[in-house]
Amino acid sequence: MLLILIIHGFPYYALMNRFQNRLNRAGLSNGLNWKPKVASINEESFNRTKLTIYNGGIGINEFQNKKDIFEASFGRKIEAITSDELSPEYTVIMFTKNNWPKVVKFSSICNNINLHRDHFILGHTLKGIVTQDINELPHMLIAGSTGSGKSIMMKEVLVSLMKSSPYLQVIFLDLKAGIEVQDFKNYPNVSIIKDMESAVYVLKRIKTEMDQRFSYLEQNGHREIVCERDKMDKILVVVDEASVLYMSNYANQQAMKLSRMARELTDSLAKLSRAANIHLLLATQKVTKETIDTHIQENISGKFCFKTNTLAGSVTVLGNGAAYSLPDIPGRGFWSHGHKLIEVQVPLITSEEVKQFGEKLVEEYKCGSRKMLQAKINLEPNSNSNGDSNSDNNSNNNNQSNGPKNYKVEDVCIKQIEN
Ligand SMILES: Nc1ncnc2c1ncn2[C@@H]1O[C@H](COP(=O)(O)OP(=O)(O)O)[C@@H](O)[C@H]1O
Ligand SMILES: [Mg+2]
Question: Given 40, 61, 96, which residue is the final one in a domain?
Answer without folding.
Answer: 96
